[in-house]
Amino acid sequence: MKMVLKTFLIFLFSCSLFAQEQIRVMGYNLLNYPNNRSGTNITAIEPFYKKIINTINPDALVVVEMVQQAGVNQFLTNVLGNDYSAATVTIKGTNSSGDDGNNCAFYYKPSKLTLIESKEIPARTRVISSFKVVHNTTKDTLIILGVHLKANVFNSDNVLNQEKRTDAVISLRNETVKYRANANFLVCGDFNIFSSNEKAFQKLIDKSTSGYAIDMLNVTGNWSANPTFSSVSTYSANKLDTRLDMILISQGLQDKGGVDYINDSYKIFGNDNNHFSKAVNQGVNTWFLNDASMGTALVLASDHLPIYADFSFGVATNIDRYNSLPEKFELEQNYPNPFNPTTTINYKLQSASHVTLKVYDVLGREVATLVDEYKPAGNHSTLFMPRLEQGKAGALSSSFSSGVYFYRLTAKNHSPSSQHGFAQTRKMLFLK
Predict the structure, then answer these.
(1) CA 341 to CA 54: how far, in whole Å?
(2) 22-315 domain in CATH 3.60.10.10?
(3) Sign (positive/negative) of CA torsion 171, 173, 177, 179?
(4) β-strands 378-384, 343-349 pairing
């Protein structure tokens, strides 16, 4: 009996040691909060921020264009509330050309994360902010670098501004090259870079030395005013046609073990790839089919769209998820479950297949299609947002009710018409 009990306790300890926890990191340009509102009182704007952030529900939030420490405190009190704590390095006002000070602030949930270091990295134009956090349960650490690189001045030569951005990135790389091998860090903010060919971006992703960053969206070319890259545009909410805001990750977050980036979790909130050169609240936006007021909130809150990505903490290092293909097809249990407002669904493909992932209510009615495309072999992940999904055949779905839902994965080799493949269904619980 003692041996059985000892084995059981070892098992429980092993489970707790490698228990995975999910953390969401969000970036947002606040448009000179709380100033520069063309006469609009900021108290009329703050409810829009609150609506957006409550929906995304980040555990860590990097914001830029924050004016003065008083603004940092006001945003915490009026928008975020008691669930968050704030941290900054050096907050100063900016001069007319935006060439002084640092306007980045960091907010986090102390219930999940503990801040162990705030650090200023000197850089041209604006310093770079470094915040190191440790997960309260798994004890994994993550360094979050907040950046707001020099913007272009369109009515004058912008070559100088490109040089300023490059110099700032060199300062950043001089810092990250000091990190240990496979360090867990990410770079988040408003990069003001218009093309993957710009020297600043090339230096960020240069793998010739350690400390490089990885673009999870992996898009190359001129991102500005180019419909080819409409899906990655973050600016502006009134005329969406440029990529400025990004989250870039380290090789350590890409590799297995410790802290992992969750595949396909990187999102641009409000960009449904149907609003190139349009306001995101013009017509139907599939991000907020049942709440058109969300589009209005995005347009009035800022000229940028928020971005976010999810990360797993406490990933066991003996699971080779990246260097080997899955041995079988599998649909995993969603996490978290029960959930509100979002949950992540992971699945494994032993071979390349046409995949459909659909959600059904308890009466067997299809209420959402999450995936319907050809996917390569490997591990995949998708995010389910019940109140923001599009129903069958593009119809607008009704508001989701609390209760049990079923999600079903089908994977067919070669083509959607193939008669042979894999199918699995699981149950999940949505609580409002």
Answers:
(1) 9
(2) yes
(3) positive
(4) antiparallel
- Does residue 121 carry a pLDDT above 80? yes
Q: What is the pTM of this model?
A: 0.71
- Cβ distance 426 to 406 under 8 Å? yes
pLDDT digit string, tens, across residues 416-428:
444 568 999 999 9
Q: Peptide bond before 376: cis, by omega within 30 degrees of 0?
A: no
User: Chain centroid to CA 410: how far?
Assistant: 27
Question: DSSP secondary structure string, 131-161?
Answer: EEEEETTT--EEEEEEEEPPPP-TTS--HHH
Say which residues have a Cβ less than 8 Å from residue 77's Cβ, sequence separation at least 6.
none
Out of 2.60.40.4070, 2.60.40.10, 1.10.1040.50, 3.40.50.2000, the CATH code matching 330-430 is 2.60.40.4070
In the chain, domain spans? 22-315, 330-430
- What pLDDT shows up at residue 361? 92
What angle separates helix 42-56 from helix 293-301, to the nearest 10 degrees? 120
